[in-house]
Amino acid sequence: MQPPGTRGPPASTVTPMTDAPTADSADTAEGPRGVDVPRVTEWFQAHAPEVEPPLDFELIAGGRSNLPFRVTDAADHAWVLRRPPLGQVLATAHDMSREYRVIPALRDTDVPVAPALAFCADEAVNDRPFYVMGFVDGVVLHTAGHTERLLPAHPARRRAAETMVDALSALHAVDVDAVEPRHQAAERSR
């Protein structure tokens, strides 16, 4: 799922948004809510040959919709698992397969996107469909105050804002007709 030798960042470089906890972010004795650790670990072993259990799942908090978890293994490989929110949700509002198909369609554009690696539609594994994608090191900037704490130098905040604008501009510049065949190919390969 991740190229051999690729390592996740040290835990100190990942900044989860712990200042905005939600009921969905509570951990259980078995792991974070929203992840069936034994079943997802078994699924990872079948779909990521280089995975080295045990796996650790950490909610990347601050999101408002689908739940992203940073997944690391004993060898410090890192991935992101994305799943729908906990509780009752409209399937069409949180269609993980659609999200998973759009990512490879954007792969050859200027939109910065981590690779989509594997999709699981079997709800027996983790209660809802989910997918795994590559992990990209960075910080989650949630509020202006949080941004000022994490990026105290004005030039760093400016560069973060410019990078975000560049990414949004690249997304809006995508020729939908050009990426649609890749999106359809991803749909057929499901």
In short:
This protein is of the alpha+beta class. Helices cover 34% and strands 16% of the residues. The chain contains six helices and seven strands.
Keywords:
190 residues, alpha+beta, Phosphorylase Kinase, domain 1, two-stranded antiparallel sheet, 6 helices, 34% helix, disordered N terminus
Structure, described:
This protein has 190 residues and is of the alpha+beta class. The chain has one domain: 2-Layer Sandwich (Phosphorylase Kinase, domain 1). 34% of the residues lie in helices and 16% in strands. The chain is built from six helices and seven strands. The protein has a five-stranded antiparallel beta sheet with strand order 3-4-5-7-6, with helices on both faces. β1 and β2 form a beta hairpin. It is globular and about 45 Å long.
